[in-house]
Amino acid sequence: MKKCINMLHIMFRYAKVEAIAYLNVDILLSIVSASQLLILQMIVDGFAKNEDIFSAGGIGLALLCSYFFAKNLLDNLKAQTAFRLEKSISINLGTEIAETVNSLDYDCYENENMYDVIEKVSDKPYQHFIKAFFSFSNLMRIFIQLTAIFVYLIYISGIGVCVSICLIAAIFFFDYKIMVTSDELENDKIPEERMLKYYINLFFDKKYLYEIKILQTESFFMNKIDQYMKRVYRKRLKISFCTQKYYGYSCLFLSLWAIWALGMVGWKVYNSIVPVGVFLASIKMIDMISGLSGLFSEEYVGCGEELQKIAYYENLKRIEGIDEQ
C-alpha cells in the first residue's frame, strides 16, 4: 500500500493534470461499460412491452448508438491522455533521475551495492511508474464495474446478493491464484533453464568441439543436458498442473454462480416479479464477471511487479540524501 501511495504521489507531482484526467476518463469508461446491463434490459423490455415494433426498434437503436458513441469517444480520449501522461512523466521524471545520477559523487560508483542501484535506475525507471499507474487505473475500473454489478444484483435479488458475492469472490480468488502460482513457478524454473541453455550452447559451440573430443567429455555434457531437461520438464508439468487445478475451481464456481443467477432470475421472470429484459442482462453480467476476474488477476500481479521495480528509484533518492550529507 505504501509503495502504491508513493507511486501516485510521484505521478501527481510530475504530471498532475494528465494523471487526474486519465483517472477521470477511466472512471467514465467504467460507468459506460457497466451501463450495458441497463441498456440491454431497456431494449428487450421495450420490445416486450411496446406493441409498436418500429418505436421500440428506434429507441433500442438510439440507446445502442449512444453507448457506442460514448465508448469510442472515451477510448480515443483515453489514448490521447495516456500519450500526454507518458510524455510528461518521461520528460519531467526522466530529467530529474538523470540529474540525480549525474550529481552523485564518484564514491557512489565505487560502492558495489550503490552502483547496482544506479545501473538499474539508469534503465528508464519512469516506465515502471507509468505501467504501475495504468494497472492501478485498470484495477479502479474493475472495482467500479463490480460495484455497479453488485448494485444491479441487489435490484434483482435483494438478500440473495450475498450468495452471489460469495461465489464471485471465489471466482476472483482462484483466478488470482492462477496468475500468482504461474509467476512463482516460472521464476523458480529460471535457474534450471539458464543452466540447460548454458550446457547446450557450450556443447554445440564450434570453438569447443576440439576440446570436448580430446577430453572425451561428450557423456558428461549429455548427462548434464538430460539432467536439466528433466528438471525443466518436471517444473513445467508442475506449473501446468497447478494452474489447471485453480482454473478448474474457477470454472466450477463460475458455473455454480451462472446456474444460481440464471435460475433465480428465470424464476422471477416466470412469476412476473422482474421484467424479461433482466434475464438477458444477467447473461451479459455473467460474461462481464468472467472477463473482470481474469483482468483483475493480471493487473493486480502486474501492478505489484512494477511497484517492486520502483523501489530502485527510492533507493536512489536515499543515496542522494546520504551523498548530500
Question: Care to describe what's here?
Answer:
- The chain has 325 residues and is mainly α.
- The protein has 12 helices and no strands.
- The chain has helices at 2-14, 16-34, 36-49, 53-103, 106-110, 112-121, 126-157, 161-188, 190-204, 209-215, 218-270, 277-324.
- α2 packs parallel to α7 (126-157).
- It is extended and about 90 Å long.
DSSP strand tally? 0
Q: Unreliable stretches, pLDDT < 50, 5 or more residues?
A: 319-325
What is the CA-based Rg, rounded?
27 Å
* Strand content range: under 5%
Fraction in helix = over 70%
- What is the typical, i.e. mean, pLDDT? 78
Content-based structural category? mainly alpha
Terminus-to-terminus distance = 29 Å
Largest sheet: none
What is the subunit arrangement here? single chain
Order of helices and strands: HHHHHHHHHHHH
> Treating each run of at least 4 consecutive H or I residues as one helix, how many helices?
12
Task: Tell me the overall shape.
Answer: extended
Q: Keywords, please?
A:
disordered C terminus; 325 residues; 12 helices; mainly alpha; single chain; 91% helix; extended
List the helices and strands and how they pair.
Layout: H1 2-14, H2 16-34, H3 36-49, H4 53-103, H5 106-110, H6 112-121, H7 126-157, H8 161-188, H9 190-204, H10 209-215, H11 218-270, H12 277-324
Helix pairs in contact: 1-2, 1-7, 2-4, 2-7, 3-4, 3-12, 4-7, 4-12, 6-12, 7-12, 8-11, 8-12, 9-11, 11-12
In short:
With 325 residues, the protein is mainly alpha-helical. The chain contains 12 helices and no strands.
